[in-house]
Amino acid sequence: MKLTLKIWRQKDAKSRGELVDYQMKGIEGDMSFLEMLDVLNEELINKGEEPVVFDHDCREGICGVCSLQINGEPHGPDRLITACQLHMRKFKDGDTIFIEPFRAKAFPIIKDLMIDRSAFDRIQQAGGYISVNTSGNTVDANAIPIEKEKADDAFAAATCIGCGACVAACKNASAMLFTSAKVSQYALLPQGQVEAADRVLAMVKQMDEEGFGNCTNTGACEIECPKGISLENIARMNREYLKASLKG
Amino acid sequence: MSILDSKIPEGPLADKWTKHKNTINLVNPANKRNIDIIVVGTGLAGGSAAATLAELGYNVKTFCYQDSPRRAHSIAAQGGINAAKNYQGDGDSVYRLFYDTVKGGDYRSREGNVHRLAEVSTNIIDQCVAQGVPFAREYGGLLDNRSFGGVLVSRTFYAKGQTGQQLLLGAYSAMNRQINRGKIKSYTRHEMLDIVKIDGKARGIIARDLVTGEIERHSAHAVVLASGGYGNLFYLSTYAMGSNVTATWKAHRRGAFFANPCYTQIHPTCIPVSGDHQSKLTLMSESLRNDGRIWVPKRIEDAEAIRAGTLKPTQLSEEERDYYLERRYPAFGNLVPRDVASRAAKERCDAGFGVNKTGEAVYLDFAAAIQRYGAEKAHTSGIHNPTKEEITKLGEEVVEAKYGNLFQMYEKIVDENPYKTPMMIYPAVHYAMGGLWVDYNLQTTIPGCYAAGEANFSDHGANRLGASALMQGLADGYFVLPYTIGDYLSHDILTGKIPTDTPEFDEAEQHVKDRIQKLMSGSGAHSVDYYHKKLGKIMWNKCGMSRNEKDLKEAIDEITALREDFWKNVKVPGTADNMNPELEKAGRVADFLELGELFAKDALDRKESCGGHFREESVEQSGEQKGEALRDDKNFKYVAAWEYKGVPKEAKLHKEDLVFENIELKTRSYK
Amino acid sequence: MGGLIKSSIARKVAMALSGLFLVFFLLQHFTINFTSIFSADVFNELSHFMGTNPFVQFLLQPILIFGVVFHFVMGFILEIKNNKARAVKYARFKGGANSSWVSRNMIWSGVVVLAFLGLHFYDFWVPEMVHKYIEFAPEDPTRYYTELLHRFESPIRTGLYALSFVFLALHLWHGFASSFQSVGFNNKYSVAATKFAKAFAIVIPLGFIVVAIVLHLTH
Predict the structure, then answer these.
(1) Which CATH class is domain A117-132+144-247?
(2) What's the N-to-C CA distance of chain A in angstroms?
(3) Pick from A44, A62, A186: CB nearest B76
(4) CB neighbours of residue B661 within 10 Å
(5) Is B631 noted as a catalytic residue in this protein?
(6) Which of A62, B125, B178, B545 satisfies CB 3.0 to 4.6 Å to B183 for a cystine?
(7) Does B573 contact A128 at a Cβ distance shorter than 8 Å?
(8) ipTM for this model
(9) Tens of pLDDT, residues B420-470
C-alpha cells in the first residue's frame, strides 16, 4: 500500500521541530508499524539523509519504550497494544498518518520522536518500593497468605510498562494512572502497607514537581493504556493520599 | 595443566557454598564506603547486584543503554522462575533441581555452581515476595506453581505470562530505594565502550553518553558486567533490538576469556518469519506445548498446496497429518526439551514439509485439546449428549482461560484466529548459554572484572531448562556476587579513589574515539542493517540448529570477509556528537562480526553434539537412539574458554575439565 | 490545610467536594422552585424562610457563595495549570477516541454556567440584596411568587435560562459522577452511584427547564 507520513522532526531538545511529509510505497499489511519506519529509515540512509530517531527495543509490547502518538492516539488506533505490536493491516492504501512524539512538559524531546521519560523514574525513586534488604533472610514466602483477589488486583496494577501513554492521551498530561498503579500494587499487599502513607505522599509530591497536569477523570488514560490499567487505581491512590494526609 | 582455576571449594557438594561464605574475606562496613563498583547492565542480574551492593554500603554506579533500568530485556521473560521450595509436596528438593539442571544442560556445567544455584533458589522467592512481587496465588492465598518442560515436579513460580517483568520491576524497585538513598548513581542512555585495566586489574570503563555523544571516564575498584546475552548475532531473535555483546566483547579483547560461545538456545515455539522486512521474532510461551499438538502434512504435495494457499490445514484428516514429535519420541511427545523440539521442526521443514508461505513453519494445533476440555467441561456442567458445537464452545472457553493472552498476541501479529485454525510456529534464537568465563566467585580472567547472569557462561551447560534464566540472574545478583566480590575488594580498602587522569584511561578513551571515527568514515555503500542481516543469514544457515565442519569453515571465511567489507563500506549517517542510533548499531554489529567468527570456531572445535550444539557428524548410528545427538564425554567434557589473540579465529583455547563427583553421566533419552 | 491544597490530588478532591456541595444546593434550589408550579403559597412560604432566616442568610449564604467562587476559581487555576503541562500541542489529537466531549470541555460548560450565574445574580440575587439590606424595604412574605413570574415573562430570557441548564446538565453529566472517583469512591457500588449521578444530571436541569417553561406559559 501507499501512505503519506507526517513525521515530527526535531534536531535536539533546544531546536524547533516541524512535521515533515514522507511518501511510502510497497508497505505490506504483515509489517509492524515500526518495521514500516525501518523501511523509511533504510530509504533515508540510502539517500544520505538522517533517519528518523524513535525509541524501540523489545518490539513485543513489554519494555514500554515505544512513545509514538499515531494519528492523535498513543500507540495508534488499536487497543491494548504498544506501537511495536501495531500492524500495517490496520491502515488503508492512501492513508495519511501523523506520527508525533508523546507530548508533555515533563517529557522533553531528545530528538525527533524520542523523549525523555526520566520523570517516571524519579517518581518511582521517591517511594515506589518496599524497604526490605535483599539479604534473603526474610520470612518464608508462604508465611503471609494473601487473598487471591487482592493478589490478582496487585498484579494487574503491577503490569504497567511505564510507557507514558496515559500522559500522552490525557488532555492535561497527567501522570495519575502511572503513579497510582505503583501506589496500588503496594497498597494492596500486606508487605507494602507498613510504608503506605509515606509512599503515597512522597510519590505524589514528586509527580507534582515534575510538572504533570491534574487528573480530570476523562478516562482517556485507561482506554489508551496498552496494559489496560484500571481507573480504580486512581481512586485508590486518592483514598490512600487522603488517608495519609489526614493522618498528618 | 590448565591456567583456569575454577576455585570451586573443597568438601561435600552440599556444604561448598556455606563453607565458602564462611571463609572468604569480608570488607568492614566503614571501608565499604570508600569502595566504588561499576555495574554495567540493569536487568535481573545487574539490577539485583547493584541494589544489594549499594545496600551493603558500596558506592555503585550503574550503566544501561536503555532510558530506564526498568526496560532491560529480562522484562520479556514470560514463563516463570524455578525454585526448590517443594510447596506442592511432590518430592522436589535442592538436589533434584540441581540434578535436573545439570542433566538438562547435557552435562556441560559445573556441579558446584549449579548446586549453589539450586540452594539459593528458595531465597529468591522469599526475597521477591517481601519486595512485593505479585506472584500467582491459589484461592487459599498461598503461592501457585506450574510445571515446565522436561521435569517431573511443579516448581515454577509465575506471574501470569509476565514473570520476568514482575521480577525485574522488583529489582528495579530495590535499585530505586538505593538511588533515593544516594548509594546508586544511575547512568541511563549510556553505553560502555571499553574496560580500563590498571596493573592488570579492572579499574573502570569508558562510556558514551548516547544523548550528547560525549565520551566519559568512570573509575571503580571493580567492574561487574551484567549485560545479557548475544543472540542478536543472528539478527532475527527474540532478544530486544538493542541487546548486544559489546560490553562482554570489550572485556574479552582486554583479556577476559569467552566460554562456549557456540552454546545458544533455539526456542521451538516462536511466531514464524513473515517476510524480509522482519526485524524481530516473538516468542510464544513454552507452556503452549502442554496442550498443543505439533504436526506437518504427511504428504509433500499437501504441504506444497498449503504453501500455495490452495489447501487449508483444517481440511486435512488425522491420517493425512504427521505428528512427528509424538511419532519420534513416544514417551515425551510434544514435551521434549527445547533443543530436541527445535531440531525436529527444522528437519521436517528442510525435508519440504514446512507450512506458511516461507515453508519455515509447523503447526501447533489446539483442536484436540479444545475437544477434550470441552467434553470434560460439558460433563462437569451436567450437560448430557452435548452437540459438537457445544463441546467446541466450552473447550474454547477453557483454552482461552489458560492461554487467552498468548492467543490474542498471536492473532494481532498473524491475523489468524488460532482457535479455528492451527497456530504456526518455528524455532528462533532465544538465549545464550555461553558467555564470559567466570570462576566460582563469578570473576572473569581479568582480576576485578566480574560477570553475572546471561553475560557469563553460566550454570546451564549446553542447554538451559525453562524458567532457569530468571533464577540464575537473581541468584547471581542478589545472593552470590555481592558476597564473593568482597573477597577481592578486601584487598582494596587502602587503595583510595581511582584517578581517571592516568595513561591507561587516556589510552582506552583514545581507542574508543578512534574506533568511532573509523565507523563514521566508511565509504557509505551499505547501511548497518545490511551487514547485520547478512551476518544473521550466515549464522542461521551455517551455525544454526545443526552444524557441520564444511559449513562452519565456510562461515568463518564468510564472516571474515564480511567484516572487512563492513569496515570499508559501512554507512553511518549523522554525527557522533549527538543522539545517533545508527552509530550505536554500527558499534554493536562490528562486535558481532568478531564474535560470529569465534562462535563458528568454537562450534567447529566441538566435534560432539551436546545440548543446543548439534554436529551432524556426531549422531547415534544404531539402536533405539539412531539419528539422535551423540555426546562425546571422553573428548569434550570441558568448558572451552577462548583467549583473544588479535583476530577472533586465532583465539587460543583453554580447557576447563568438568568434574562430576555427584552425578553419573548418561545419555539423555526422550524416546 | 495549606499544604494539602498544594498537591494535585488535594485540588482534585477540593473540586469534587465543592462540586458535590453545589449539587446538594442545586437539589434544594430545585425543590423550592418546583413548588412554584403547583402552589404559590408554599413557594412564598419557603422563599420567605430562606430569605429571612438568619442562619440561612448569614451562615449558609456566605458558605454557598464561597463554594461557588472556590469551585470556579479552582477550575480556572486547574485549567491554566493543565494547559501548561503540555506546552507544545499535538498537530493531531483524537480525544474523541478515548473520552467524552463533555469530560474534555468542563471549562466551557462551566464558563456558560458561570455566565448564566451572572445573569441569575443580576436578576434575582442583586435586587434581593438591594431590597433587603440597602433599601431596607419592608418584608412582604407574598411578594416572591409575583416577582418570579415577572422574571419569566420574556421568551428570550426563558430560552437563555433553558439553554444554560442544558450546559449545566453537560457539566453535571461528567462532574457529578466523576467526583466520586476523585474522593476515592470506586468499588462495587460505583456503577449504581454513577447511574444515579447521570440520572441526576439529566433530571434536575430538565426540571428547572420545565419549571421555567411552565412559569413562562402561566404568565
Answers:
(1) mainly alpha
(2) 61
(3) A62
(4) 8
(5) no
(6) B178
(7) no
(8) 0.98
(9) 999 999 999 999 999 999 999 999 999 999 999 999 998 999 999 889 999
